[in-house]
Write a structure and sequence with these properties.
Strand content: 15-25%
CATH architecture of one domain: 3-Layer(aba) Sandwich
Helix content: 25-40%
CATH superfamily of one domain: Type I PLP-dependent aspartate aminotransferase-like (Major domain)
CATH class of one domain: Alpha Beta
Number of helices: 14
Shape: globular
Distance between the termini: 40 Å
Largest sheet: 7 strands, mixed
Structural class: alpha/beta
Radius of gyration: 21 Å
Bound molecules: pyridoxal-5'-phosphate
Strand order of the largest sheet: 4-12-11-10-7-5-6
Length: 403
Amino acid sequence: MILKEVGKTKEDIKDMYNTYFYETFKRLDFIAEKGHDTYLVDENGREYLDFMAGIAVNSAGHCNPKVVEAIKEQCETLIHASNYCYTIPQAMLAELICKSIGMEKIYFQNSGAEANEVMIKLARKYGKDNYGPNRYKIVTALNSFHGRTLATLAATGQPGSAIQHNYDPFIPGITYAEFNNVKAFEEACDEDTIAVMVEPVQGEGGVIPATKEFLQGLRKLCDERDMLLLFDEVQTGWGRTGSLMAFMGYDVKPDCVSMAKAMGGGMPIGAMCTSEKLARTFGPGAHGSTYAGNPVCCAASYAQVKEILDNNLADNSDKMGEYFRNILLKLPHVKEVRGKGLMIGVEFDKEIATDVKYNSSDEGLLITAVRPSVIRLVPPLNVTKEECDKAFEILNKVVKELV
Ligand SMILES: Cc1ncc(COP(=O)(O)O)c(C=O)c1O
């Protein structure tokens, strides 16, 4: 839909939001009407360089032509059946993903939170099935973010934060330990702990990469105590950090990995992939979802994953990430530039991230603020040097004007 076609003004649309919508976001002051490549286009045809990419979703660009074609074709063939039927896109996508990342089984979901939710459910069931009723505890990292359903909110290690406030009591059995500290995890796990769950790079927590020692240490800990290692790769997956999955870049294989965002090219799809060890934990009736693995989402995801694979977008993410991080170091008031591939956080020595975000948008660059002093840049993985240079120029101007 575009504004002209529906006969409304921008103010009408904003009024409709105010009247009818539960507003949980403070929105940027434009209507996202169209998108192409690295650009989001507003109601007046103004193009914004999109380094937010739908929050790390549009990794092969907005409205990638292959994804669009796949959606159109699938819509004309079959939009929805049910999970009582075999459907071709599901099978094609399951094989493509498992083979590409070296995992044995997949379960499709509709979002990142749902992918994590099912990962938590699987871990609990595996624990109880194999070791008895008390073996269901999970340890996650402080400062983590795993989603906003009740189980994933419990897994989110941000006690006392606004995102958790007044949603308690949470599901029991989830405790937190310090990120990048194997010893802390060792101490937090007891004989009833069945799994450890972390993001290889904490995204919402301020773009904080795990160290190799940490992830390898967790792998060792899990092997020694017969616990499962769960990676939340909802944000880091599919090339974002410079390898196909972040775990591949760290050379640490989890027992179970969740994914969403980039895999769908903009369509709502998530998944959980496991090793053979967990393959028999779910049988008929153990889990389900009406839409999960919907044919249109799977067809779109198949096209998107193929785009990422065929164009070596993980490699481009690695190269362009390094290039971009180096130039970002030249911004005024930078304390640290961190991240992996094209998942980049810039920490300023002042709490200006929200202002930088809104002022950058006014100047035609879209980014997010993940902490009061940290902005996050997650452009499409096929971003060019010229686009990174342009983003830097805008940020440079905005920060100079602010402080
Ligand atoms: C690491 C991580 N896990 C889970 C989620 C939740 O995903 P969704 O918003 O698709 O439910 C996010 C979303 O930002 C995320 O970054």
